[in-house]
Amino acid sequence: MLIHPANNESEAPDSVRFVWTRSQPNITRYWFELSLDSLFNLTRVDSTGTDTTTVLYSLTWGATYYWRVRAGNADGWGPFTITLRFTISSTGISELETGVPTAFALDQNYPNPFNPSTIIHFALPKQTHVRLEVYSILGELVSTMLDQEMEPGFHRVEFSGRDSHGRTLAAGMYIYRMVTPGFTEAKKMILLK
Question: What gap in Å lies between CA 33 and CA 48, rounded to an integer?
Fold first, then answer.
């Protein structure tokens, strides 16, 4: 069941948190779709989710979006939920997410696929050392975006599609990984040319 954003709701443009209920039984992953049309022809997909929430950033002001989710396990994917729609409000400036998060998190980059750059958001519940790296699909380290002590809070880093030497990367799939003492997570992103 889809919880937030509710049908025909208005959302702020800087970030939208999507929340749905956990499916039963034995669900191991979720397939999230967001589209600018109700037929899902222009769709942004994340099929790597294991949690019942995701946050997307920098959605288009004034645009109406449609979203749906389906659950999967070892036997395959189930049917999609009903489709809900919401509009990004085109007036006013909303506050950025502030405060201290309750858990470590690495969000899906946006836009994805991207060219020439993308934004990666992450959350730190306490001061800690953070290393944010990009790997080729073959497992080669191609860039270290961060390697430093950071304060608790919500953070964002821009990735320019370049390696540690400033050379433009080839089009393809890459893995970005956040490593802290006690928390490691990786996600896929696609660089287009």
Answer: 11
